[in-house]
Amino acid sequence: MSTASHIEIKPSVLYVGTPVMLISTENADGSTNLSPASSYWSLGQMLVLGLLADGQTAANLTQRPGLTVNFPHPKLWQHVEAIADTTGATPVSAAKAARYVHEKDKFGCLGLTPQASELVTPPRVQECALQFEAMVRRTTSGVGDYLMVEAEVLRVYASPEIVVPGTNHVNPQAWEPTIYSFRHYFGLGTEHGFRPTSDTAALTAFSPVP
Predict the structure, then answer these.
(1) Which segments constitute the Flavin reductase like domain (predicted)?
(2) Pair type for strands 179-181 and 21-26
(3) Does the residue 210 lie in any domain?
């Protein structure tokens, strides 16, 4: 692909390639809300999540700070998309009414299985091979229509098949997140290389593609 010349563009979104998450939070009545999200980055044990400020997930986390962050395999993309235009909020706000519909039982709606958490109240998603339990430490509003949430990861759970045996390392050759890129869902493609600080390169006998 030539980059000899570039043109200025103004895309409506900047999701160049971010992981899809299913975020589980606790509603005021003790029930569970499950919401897809894809604005995410991490630093150490901290996650920074971007959420719609008028959504049920944001409302829950400003009142009840426990959450789980669950990373679905690409084969679950249709489950993610199925609740993309639903909200746990009722009544649905005027701003959302044209697009969103209320759905109280999102686990049941999708046929996904709630899995009891150990350190927070909201359940994990059993079908997701990688799961975090976390606690909100700070929220920042006023970022357009969004709420920025900083959460500390308290515990990480992984299916054995994605862990390098005998270690605490996720095997990136066995683990495949769902990547959201310009409103399309993707899996991972061919691996091309790794950082020298990789915990798993020597353990997985990876050879870069020539």
Answers:
(1) 16-187
(2) unpaired
(3) no
CATH number at residue 102: 2.30.110.10
188: β partners: none
Is the model's pLDDT at 194 over the cut of 50? yes
Give pairs for 198-204: CB < 8 Å, separation 24+. Answer: 199/167, 199/169, 200/164, 200/167, 200/169, 200/170, 200/171, 200/172, 200/173, 203/164, 203/167, 203/169, 203/171, 204/164, 204/171, 204/172, 204/173
Residue 103 lies in a domain: yes
| pLDDT over 80 (residue 34) | yes
If one counts every other C-beta atom within 10 angstroms of the C-beta of residue 70, the result is 25
* Mean pLDDT, residues 19-48: 94
- Residues spanned by the domain of 121: 18-186
* pLDDT > 50? residue 61: yes
**12 lies in a domain?**
no
Q: Please tell me the total count of domains within the chain.
A: 1
Residue 210: the pLDDT is: 45
Specify the residue for token string 């994605």: 162
Contact indicator for 102, 90 with CB cutoff of 8 Å: yes
